[in-house]
Design a protein that fits this description.
Strand content: 15-25%
Radius of gyration: 16 Å
Shape: globular
Structural class: alpha/beta
Number of strands: 6
Helix content: 25-40%
Largest sheet: 4 strands, parallel
Order of helices and strands: HHEEHEHHEEHE
Oligomer: single chain
Length: 187
């Protein structure tokens, strides 16, 4: 079962930014709007402004290009950079219910639609962890070609779900569900 599906997983926002470095330098609004350690509101990475149409297009293009360049791969991750610092702009707060989960999975769905449009019926998927501040399932349906990898650690469920509850909820939210175990981390 380990290799029944070659899972493309990981943190991708930094790769998306690096692949579009000129755009990010010219447009600081592509980065997340956050409060810095001094309480000042700034645009800062490694997270992105997920409501920004240019960021959405870059993410979709990143997923499609990767799968074009790696035709044997069936999946690409479009997951956030590790850690916090998610965008707090008004437009990101309007994505879904405004939760970080809804922000992250809105962008995941956009990339998934682009991949399906480019590779219709080929089974190509887009993946994202259910992890950290985006552990909870979104308030809206996921695209059929979204693969979720629920992590067994570092789950900061906004609704205080236990891990067994999350397994059940994600099992209802997607037919494409995997699990990441942290055997070396005791929580």
């Amino acid at each position: 079962m380990q290799y029944s599906v070659k899972v493309g997983r990981g943190h991708a926002y930094t790769a998306i930014e690096n692949g579009n470095s000129a755009g990010f330098k010219a447009h600081p609004e592509y980065l997340a709007l956050v409060k810095d350690k001094d309480g000042k509101v700034v645009r800062k990475g490694p997270q992105m402004c997920l409501s920004n149409p240019a960021v959405q297009k870059m993410t979709a293009d990143y997923a499609v290009k990767y799968l074009e360049d790696h035709p044997d791969n069936m999946m690409i991750s479009v997951g956030p950079a590790d850690g916090g610092g998610f965008c707090q702009c008004d437009q990101c707060k309007k994505l879904g219910d405004g939760s970080i989960s809804d922000q992250v999975f809105s962008l995941t769905n956009i990339a998934a639609r682009a991949v399906e449009a480019h590779f219709p019926g080929q089974g190509k998927m887009v993946s994202t962890y259910a992890y950290s501040f985006y552990t909870d399932p979104p308030s809206f349906p996921l695209e059929p070609n979204v693969f979720i990898e629920l992590t067994a650690g570092y789950n900061y469920s906004a609704k205080r779900y236990t891990y067994p509850e999350l397994v059940d909820l994600w099992g209802k939210a997607t037919k494409n569900l995997g699990f990441r175990e942290y055997f070396s981390v005791w929580q």
